[in-house]
Amino acid sequence: MAGLGAQSAPSPFTQQPDLADRYGIIIPRPPDTHKDKTTNPKVGAMDAILLQILNGLDKGSAYALIALGLTLIFGTLGVVNFAHGALFMIGAFCAVTLQRLLNLSFETIDETQTDFLGNALKVKTPYVEAWFGPQMGGTIIDWAVPLAILFAVPIMVFVGYAMERGLIKHFYKRPHADQILVTFGLAIVLQEVIKYFYGANPIQTPAPEALSGIVNVGAIIGMDIVYPVWRIVYFFFSLLVIGGIFSFLQFTTFGMVVRAGMADRETVGLLGINIDKRFTVMFGIAAAVAGLAGVMYTPINSPNYHMGMDFLVLSFVVVVVGGMGSLPGAVLAGFLLGILESFASMNEIKSIIPGIDQIIIYVVAIIILLTRPRGLMGRKGVMED
Amino acid sequence: MSNSNFTRRGMLKTSAVAGAGVALPTIFTASSVAAYTNEPTGSSVTLGFNVPQTGPYADEGADELRAYQLAVEHLNGEGDGGMLNTFSSKELQGNGILGKKVEFVTGDTQTKSDAARASAKSMIEKDGAVMITGGSSSGVAIAVQGLCQEAGVIFMAGLTHSNDTTGKDKKANGFRHFFNGYMSAAALAPVLKNLYGTDRNAYHLTADYTWGWTQEESIAAATEAMGWNTVNKVRTPLASTDFSSYIAPVLNSGADVLVLNHYGGNMVNSLTNAVQFGLREKVVNGKNFEIVVPLYSRLMAKGAGANVKGIHGSTNWHWSLQDDASKAFVKSFGTKYGFPPSQAAHTVYCQTLLYADAATRAGTFNPCGIGEALEGFEFDGLGNGKTLYRAGDHQCFKDVLVVRGKENPTSEFDLLEVVEVTPAAQVTYPIDHPMFAGGALGSCNAG
């Protein structure tokens, strides 16, 4: 290309007197950022496939958790909740809020340094560090995201409860279209509220330092597959939450009543059980599941107010592919679509079918719905009236 | 024998000259009745600030709006005058523009082309805006520029970095102060060569829209010219949030440099993912693996946190510059708002001053008069050193900053450090450069 690279460039990082004079810049030398020299990451085809499977499981974890919550709400209350993505987003912002709370600081004026306007620099010290000492305080701030789990659960249960009692219960007897419209509207309101308080740009919420590196997961099978530690943590965390929900429904009396209510609401009601109250609790639990998925997702991608919408549509496809109302179906479809999406992003696949990474989920949804109209594990009679 | 010169060619020439002579007064005379769109008749003039107030770039839009308000204050003689005091042209006296008080209306682009066009149209038709400025995305800037050309008002582009804005989509009524993809590449290439050598294999991840394409084309050409090999160019959907499945193939591609042609949320996420996957700690082909982000924004760098440390990119302007103009602007902005301005704020402030100055020099708000005053205008004292508004494509040519994520930030604003100021001459290209080919300025439209 004409022009580019053709000129003989002045040597960078050597002081250019005229520029230094004009902009007052002392050009620094770059430091070596590669302190940890690890192995050559060139990996073979097999490793690449395993890497994409890991990626898929990781993406699938988020899809599965959101879809699980959606299905819980649909299965119990019969409501199609388009505000579920917003609950995921609120969960993420619980982590942001806790991080900010832990970073609440008092200011001391340091006369020896100046700020960007040339005034004496105000040095901020977090209260947590002042109370517990710099080391302990620093560790608490570092572990803000995992700590946010404890912070998020009560908040999310409350948000879910308030949402159900305050708005959604008025729409039980209305058509699904009305439910979709009102919950979608609610999602937009929640999104704008978050944007008002936290701004539109993504907010950095890092994982604790101990969990933020990479690990060679292939070492066990003699391969060289490095993967971020936090993403592995996320996968196991989602398994734990999914396992917890299934156990709760399977092995507790409360869960048994809820399952009975899902199967035949009227009969359970005739037995003198207040099934509505239990379903409201389930809505709170579903909100908490979405919230936890959001909390733990923050170190993977910096949260912004729009993140819920990004997941919402995909999660609905997951629910439909899994089968409306089927909890195992939602989880299975979540992981399946996550893995397929990852494979579709491989250059080898994209060179055969360009753009497949953007449509794979919908193509699979079409194929599955054509061959199994109720989805992978859908039950007869759900959404068919 | 006749001495008459009455030939067909002579007749055509005479008619053309006469025709132009007849047409001229109606274009350039401000006093003729409604000689141009929204001719200000009262004691004030209205400017239209079209910025993203909602949507993913709302924070940049908010910063642009702050700078616009500051510029209006300074034009009307309020505040400390900011860069009016350092601007090389001394036409502006702090008494508005041409003696008319500056007022403004705002529109919300939502970072969507159709919404941006609708809000610009409304400001022109309902509010009587005589100039439209703003934007934080190239898709929007190109759409609004086209609308302003049709409507007969000047468009002073805000943050738009695609080559196409002053390339194939350039318009006579549109002007860009911000730099572009080519300039980023031309400024970065020598620095990258110096840092990482000439034997490198680059892998590109690119946002799949006009800005991404031109940025990728520019940086790939610049790095190939210095001997780098381009391993792959992968387009990622603009709506992508998790880039892990795009990062994973980089590992077995043999590449030792990853170029992220991403902006905004895409940049934050792709960079975060790349760092998560340990790319920065790798050694490939015996060399340290490196990541490059051609277009940096401090507001966005904040979202990526510590991940930007040591990563190189380019920027139009940075608040840490120590020239008198930058210092005056930072002081003025910082005193009013409590934090330093972003590059988006800087470029729109400059654009407002440049418009006001051009109107004053032209003695009219007529877009054609202002266009003529801006074309080929050379100035200094706005924070980028000597700058030329090139007549042929309405692009500003000035020094470009190469920056790097700072290792030890001293404050939440102190994220980038300037490592090189690339002289304007090094980023200048011919008007008919292939990356800017196609399209024509056309002639100015006064409505």
UniProtKB/TrEMBL annotation, chain B:
Gene3D superfamilies: 3.40.50.2300
InterPro entries: BCAA_transport, Leu-bd, Peripla_BP_I, TAT_signal
Domain Leucine-binding protein: 45-406
Keyword tags: Amino-acid transport, Signal, Transport
SUPFAM superfamilies assigned: Periplasmic binding protein-like I (SSF53822)
PROSITE patterns the record matches: TAT
Superkingdom of this protein's organism: Bacteria
Signal peptide from the UniProt entry: 1-35
Alphabetical list of PANTHER family matching this protein: LEUCINE-SPECIFIC-BINDING PROTEIN (PTHR30483), PERIPLASMIC BINDING PROTEIN OF ABC TRANSPORTER FOR NATURAL AMINO ACIDS (PTHR30483:SF6)
Family: Belongs to the leucine-binding protein family.
Name by which UniProt lists this protein: ABC transporter substrate-binding protein
Species of provenance: Parasedimentitalea maritima
Lineage: Bacteria, Pseudomonadati, Pseudomonadota, Alphaproteobacteria, Rhodobacterales
